[in-house]
Amino acid sequence: MAGLPATARARRSPAAIAAAAPANSQVGRRAADRSFLALCLGITSLTVVILAVLLITIWNDGHGRLSWDFLTNFASRKPAEAGVKASLWGSIWVCTICALSALPIGVGTAIYLEEFSRRSRLTSFIKLNIANLAGVPSIVYGILGLTAFARLFGMASADDPITLGNPESFFYLQLPFGHGVLAGGLTLMLVVLPIIIVSSQEALRSVPRSLRTGSLALGATQWQTTWNITLPASIPMIMTGAILAMSRAIGEAAPVLVLGVPLFIRSTPTNLMSDFTVLPLQIFNWAGRPQAEFHELAAAAIIVLLAVLLTFNAIAVVLRHRLQRAAG
Amino acid sequence: MQNAAAVSTAARSAAAASRRGTARSRAARDGTERVIRGALLGCALLSVASTFTILVILLAQTGQFLAMPEVSAWEFFTGTTWSPLLGAEKHFGIWPLVTGTLLITAIAAAFALPVGLVVAIYLSEYAPPRVRTALKPVLEILAGIPTVVYGFFALTVITPFLHDHVSESFGTYNALGAGIAVGIMILPIVASLSEDALRAVPRSLRDASSALGSTRFDTSVKVVVPAALSGIVASWLLAITRALGETMIVALAAGGLAHMTANPADELQTMTAYMVQIFLGDAPAYGVEYRSSYAVATVLFAMTLGLTIVGNLFLRAFREEYE
Questions:
Q1: Are residues A314 and A173 in the same domain?
Q2: What is the pLDDT of residue B261?
Q3: Are residues A89 and A61 in the same domain?
């Protein structure tokens, strides 16, 4: 009812009459508004439906294969005996190495750019470079990892590696790294580094300027201010970004594939040079076979992978919730 | 409260510093400061080093590839036959791989760019807060799903659907199924980045538009979207970059036949899928096929880098500032 008098008034006003072409009438525009809302609702429900179909089909395909044995068996040519033990442990090792290397370097870069750098050509070049790195396909990072870590630029021969330490210990090293877990973790570090840098920069930027100036006015140095004030205030947001970056790392298959890891492996890593495979690569391997049994295995492995990711995301949500409560 | 606590920590650390405040300790403190600054700069330079190393590796290997007797640079950049593994005579013309990549990307973009923008407009302009809080996690989950999962989805759900309900001509591997899966993968990128851009448009513009008698549709399409256009286009370009470089979906669902086709029901090979084929060990290391994957990677890298630079320039040149 409220719309009617308004329409009547609009019709009477000469300016409105002049402006309103017949097709552009109030009624027509309201109809356009309603049909656009219907379009929005339809398309938005489509995304929900896609997600639902995706999750339901994978659950239907894979849940029959899920069991404790599936988690504790190695991959096998016989589908009934196959499991994800090697790839699950491989993913855990590689992601731990990725987190331990990417976090300090990524946060360090963000701190440099936000807290220490002066406006200079070097700074803007580094920023431009990071923006461009974010668009590099992950398979290209795989090539970088292959050349830089797995082969050490050809400086040491793979047939006659330089060894440090005892193969029994977990920190046993050999140069070049070959396609062991260390090379895999460092390659994934390259993939997620731009993500961690950008999200940490945003976290540091969200800390109010007044806190920094207060600290500096009391005589603290730039680093004392960063370490005691800025970092503690921004750590929940940095961690949220880091968790999202790690969920990217755990789902990446292409860069690890380029390293040339063995596709069929029946052992878990014991040191930094151990052979490994990761969950996404195991899924790729099973999904690429024509037999339906292997597709069921792929679906079951996807359920395991999504469960790990969901746990990561739940942690991120809890952190963000705390952050919002602390801020508000 | 938190701020006060933080400042008192600062006061304590500053006081601790001044208690030791002789000239020598100040020099030591400045020394520490310089060391830390240097270490942080080192972290930052590492990312520059990785770009530089990628460039050097790709260009050096491509140079070696093009210098091999079986290969000619002219054929590589203009040839329309890509047959490195088959037959006695090998051909290295990059165009079948480039057109394959572009067809997949075009299908993905045709699906994801409009759909993502509509979802973004709905979330930012129409959705009640409760619907918004329910929908955001859906997009986040879609964004977090590993691409190999989308590849599996294309292979086991999308392609059978196309075969049964659209046309019998869709085989196990086809461009449309893979392209749609890539589209689903980049949809959350478009939706959330465009939504950020739309929400950054100040409320006053919307209020002014409604005060002039606009419907929400008029306001969205004639005021808010144009004001956020630079951000929307940047999200589109980022999504296209992702689609170009996507690997696991096309390796699983698009097939391995490198040929020039515009038929979405055909099997085809993209640049990334060729690299997967080589690195999975179909070719002896240091042979001409192996080196060719680096040349393909160089072309892919040039395309994505070009798009990223265009996106950043666009964002900078057309950004509308509102205070």
A1: yes
A2: 84
A3: no
State which residues form the domain around A31: 24-65
> Measured between beta carbons, which residues in chain A are less than 8 angstroms from residue B278?
none
ipTM of model: 0.86
> Under DSSP, is residue A180 helix (H, G, I), strand (E, B) or coil?
strand
Least confident of A262-271, A297-306, B63-72, B74-83: A262-271
Judge if A211 and A298 occupy the same domain: yes
The verdict on a CB contact (< 8 Å) between B301 and A305 is: no
**CA A312 to mean position of chain CA atoms:** 10
Nearest to A284 among B7, B148, B300 (CB): B148
Rounded Cα–Cα distance for residues A219 and A51 (Å):
54
* A49 and A89 inside one domain: no
Of A65, A90, A115, the domain-final residue: A65
Q: What is the pLDDT of residues A159-179, one digit of tens each?
A: 667 777 776 676 777 777 777
Q: Where are the domains of chain B?
A: 2-67, 82-318
Interface test with B, best of A25, A43, A139 (most B CBs within 10 A): A139
For residue A8, pLDDT over 50 is answered with: no
The CATH T-level fold of domain B82-318 is MetI-like fold (1.10.3720)
Q: What tens digit of pLDDT does each residue of A10-37 get?
A: 444 444 444 444 456 778 888 888 999 9
- Is residue B13 scored above 70 in pLDDT? no
Whether residues A146 and A31 fall in one domain: no
Confidence of residue A2 (pLDDT cuts 50, 70, 90): very low
Buried b (16+ CB within 10 A) or exposed e, A292-316: eebbbbbbbbbbbbbebbeebbeeb
pLDDT tens string A106-157: 999 999 999 988 888 888 889 888 988 888 999 999 999 888 887 777 776 6
Chain A hits for B115, CB-CB cut-off 8 Å, are: 43, 46-47
Residue A15 lies in a domain: no
User: At CB < 8 A and 24+ separation, what contacts does A261-266 make?
Assistant: A261/A179, A261/A184, A262/A179, A263/B280, A264/A75, A265/A74, A265/A75, A265/A86, A265/A90, A266/A74, A266/A75, A266/A86
Q: With an 8 Å Cβ cutoff, are A224 and B13 in contact?
A: yes
Least Cα separation, residue B26 to chain A (angstroms): 10
Q: pLDDT confidence of B98, banded at 50, 70, 90?
A: very high
Number of domains in chain A: 2
A45 and A119 in a common domain: no
Q: Are residues A98 and A198 in the same domain?
A: yes
